[in-house]
Amino acid sequence: MSQKEVQVKISHQVFQDAGDEHYEVETTGLLTIKGDSVYLAYTEKIDDEGETKVIFKLTEKQISLSRHNVTKTRMVFQLGLVEHQPYQTVAGMMLLSTNTNQLDFTFDEGKQAGALDLAYALSANDQVVGQYQVALQFGPKSSILN
After folding, report:
1. What are the strands of the beta sheet with 82-89, ordered from one edge?
2. I need a labelling partner for 88 at 20 to 30 A (CA). Which of 2, 28, 74, 145 fits?
3. What is the distance between the terminal CA atoms of the chain, rounded to a whole angstrom?
4. Max Cα-Cα span within the chain
5. What is the pLDDT of residue 132?
6. Cβ atoms of residues 106 and 135 within 8 Å
7. Do you know which InterPro entries this protein is assigned to (predicted)?
8. Which residues on neighbouring strands pair with residue 113, listed in sequence order?
């Protein structure tokens, strides 16, 4: 197992009936390699939302994403798989589903750098709530991510 501090750049686009959103986060994260899996952990600080601890588990065919703030969310992304996960809210339990449309993950172990392009539909209690696109890049702190 190896660990290294990396620079992280992530861009989220959300397309919903109530309006589209776009936000980007640039921060420092911790890259851990365990067997065939790459783990990327970092903290997101988005205005008015406080801090969210984020952990990606990245493999060639499957991505899992855990987000921890006031609530905990875990989502799994794999082409051809509709993944159902319980989601605890203040109002009660909801069932979230992800339907992955695009999953492109590349990782260069020598450079300790990688990129993820992910697109998925998110449903809550069997109702589509939005289409999401995520572009993630990470690499050595000395590199400039474009």
Report:
1. 72-77, 63-68, 50-58, 37-46, 21-34, 2-15, 127-140, 113-124, 92-108, 82-89
2. 28
3. 28
4. 46
5. 94
6. no
7. Calycin, DUF1934
8. 108
Q: What is the pLDDT of residues 28-67, one digit of tens each?
A: 999 999 988 999 999 988 666 678 899 999 998 999 999 8
d(CA 33, CA 113): 12
Partner residues linked to 40 by β-bridges: 31, 56
Identity of the amino acid at 122: L
Q: 143 φ, ψ to 5°?
A: -85, 160
- The β-bridge relationship of strands 50-58 and 72-77 is unpaired
Residue given tokens 């986060």 in the structure block:
25
All structural domains of the chain with their residue ranges: 2-140
% of the chain beyond a pLDDT of 90: 50
